Amino acid sequence: MAINDQLKFLDEWSKNRGLNCGDSSKQLIKLMEEVGELAEAHNKGFQGKQADSIGDIFVALTIYAQQCGLSFEGCVGMACREISNRHGKTINGVFIKESDLTND
């Protein structure tokens, strides 16, 4: 299933369960729980659990965006446009944008 089809599925799935009208604060807590599970799976090297957690994060984040009146696709598009011409440097495996680099 293509990503757009998955987003449409999640949109309908959450609406059918009334999650689209849920409390975004509670959904944010759910999202953070899922991120915690990903961190645990990462630390323990459980690749299957990592994959499951990434999927759960995607679902929780999609529903959170929906509850906040945002389009997940729109948010990702905005981020892609923002980073498309970003310059910086990778230090110890982490990209640091140019504006955050200092001349210490």
UniProtKB/TrEMBL annotation:
- Span-the-membrane segments of this chain are none
What residues does the NTP pyrophosphohydrolase MazG-like domain cover? 30-88
Write down the Gene3D superfamilies for this protein, in alphabetical order.
MazG-like
List the coiled-coil residues.
none
InterPro entries from the UniProt entry: MazG-like_dom
Pfam families tied to this protein = MazG (PF03819)
Q: What is this protein called?
A: MazG-like family protein
